Amino acid sequence: MRTAILAGGKGTRIGSMYPELPKPMFPMLGKPLLQWHIEQLKAQGLLDITLIVGYKSEAVTSHFGNGKGFGVNISYITEDQPLGTGGALPLLPKEETLLLLGDVYYDVDFREFLKFHKEKEALITLFAHPNSHPHDSDIVVVDKESRVIAWKSKKDKERGDLRNLVNAGLYAFSPEALPREAATVKDLEKDIVFPLVSSGKVFARRTVEYAKDMGTPTRIASVACDIESGVTSTRSHEAKRKAVFIDRDGTINIEDGFLTDPEKLKLLPGAAEAIKLLNGSPYLAICITNQPVIARGEVTFERLDQIHARLDTLLGYEGAYLDDLFFCPHHPHKGFEGEVLEYKIECNCRKPKPGLILEAARIHGIDLSQSYMIGDRLTDVKAGEAAGCTPLGIGLEPFEPGIRMYKSLLDAVSDILKIDNSGKNA
Ligand SMILES: [Mg+2]
Ligand SMILES: [Zn+2]
Fold it and tell me: Which residues are marked as active site?
């Protein structure tokens, strides 16, 4: 078991801010970017590290040496000329390898990531998550088992609406997936990962953990800000996370009968802004929605996925994303034309039952007592209460006494964040 870190970056995007340093040695909150990686790995017992260095490599080797001073064992692969992101991989020993990028900040449970990789018997596992600019990103398409089935380039103008899922730049490689022939490999994605997608053994692990690019001065500053404000650590595996659960129809998008056509989905004013505010806060933004249209036979799972791809796309244009989305496909009453009998059941997930919220809490490790449920119906509020969250209503008339009401999702979210801040300052 080895961890390799690509640390040969020239830092051209950062220009001349630190002309004497290679990018991985740029300082953030008082230490080099690369040192953040080394300390995380050490804390998780991943002690055997290979640094792939090139441009101004002596700055790296003189700082880290053989790693003893940092409690780890460091070896080096030095590229005399840049070999591309995949070029040094054939030089790695053929063993299970975790690969990190030197200019991405991770607050990730690497051991859980590797466990997932083993359980799936994957050749390659990558870490995927939604980001704030999916239209400007390559998108990973996965099936229900988290297997990568397609990779849609941002340059593909015809790719249509897709769920917001982006490769964050963290990989696990089985020994047999590491390339042997140096001459044929230049680019990590194009030459190593893509060709293996068709084998059905490339998987994407999606979590709400923090992983963000630090390739420009603005991005380094934004990661530093997230570390200082606790956004990174509240998403970390060690944290008890908190969330704002959000109903879909009538809360995020305009409700106009049952939505069956992705093209008809329209966001409510301020909804994207509200979700974007949550994305920059310690709260996860998780959509919880009843979709009885499945049981009624009006919408297939594929169609519902297209509706959610449209939702992800519209939010993405405004720099916002949902950390996750859970839906109930059921409906209790039988006897309608076209219905899908297997979903015509009395389930535990249809709001006002709390099943979806409890499931989200189990998957993402959420402390419900510190979380909220926001919706435009009494059923939303009841589901939130039953799950142990603070329920907030959207609308002009109170659903019932004692429920705090707001004009819009944005008003409700702004108030949550205000309460949170005043609590912190008190
Ligand atoms: Mg609603
Ligand atoms: Zn259900």
Answer: 247, 249
Read off the tokens for 395.
């609308």
The answer on 273 and 186 residing in a single domain is no
Neighbours of 130 (CB within 10 A): 23
Predicted pLDDT of residue 12:
57
Task: Please give the residue range of the domain that contains residue 306.
Answer: 240-425
φ and ψ at residue 2, rounded to 5 degrees: -135, 150
Q: What digits encode the pLDDT tens for the residues 107-160? A: 999 999 999 999 999 999 999 999 999 998 999 999 999 999 999 999 998 999
Strand partners, 286: 245, 324
pLDDT tens digits, 62-74: 999 999 999 999 9
Query: Residue 352, preceding bond cis, omega within 30 degrees?
Result: yes
Q: Are residues 348 and 253 in the same domain?
A: yes
CA of 38 to the centre of ligand 1 (A): 46
Same domain, 210 and 108: yes
State both tokens at 325. 């989305």
Q: Is the pLDDT assigned to residue 426 strictly greater than 50?
A: no
Residues 207 and 244 in one domain: no
Q: How far does residue 167's CA lie from ligand 2's centre (Å)?
A: 31
Distance from the alpha carbon of residue 266 to the mean position of ligand 1, in angstroms: 14
Number of domains in the chain: 2
Q: Enumerate residues with CB within 5 Å of ligand 2 (an ion).
A: 328, 330, 347, 349-350
188 neighbors 86 (Cβ within 8 angstroms): yes
Q: How far is the CA of 422 from the centre of ligand 1 (A)?
A: 30
User: How many residues are listed for the chain in this entry?
Assistant: 426
pTM (two decimals): 0.91
CATH number of the domain that residue 319 is part of:
3.40.50.1000
334 in a structural domain: yes
pLDDT tens figures, 218-264: 889 999 999 998 888 888 887 889 999 999 999 999 998 899 999 99
Ligand nearest to the CA of 350: 2
Query: What is the predicted pLDDT for the residue at 357?
Result: 98
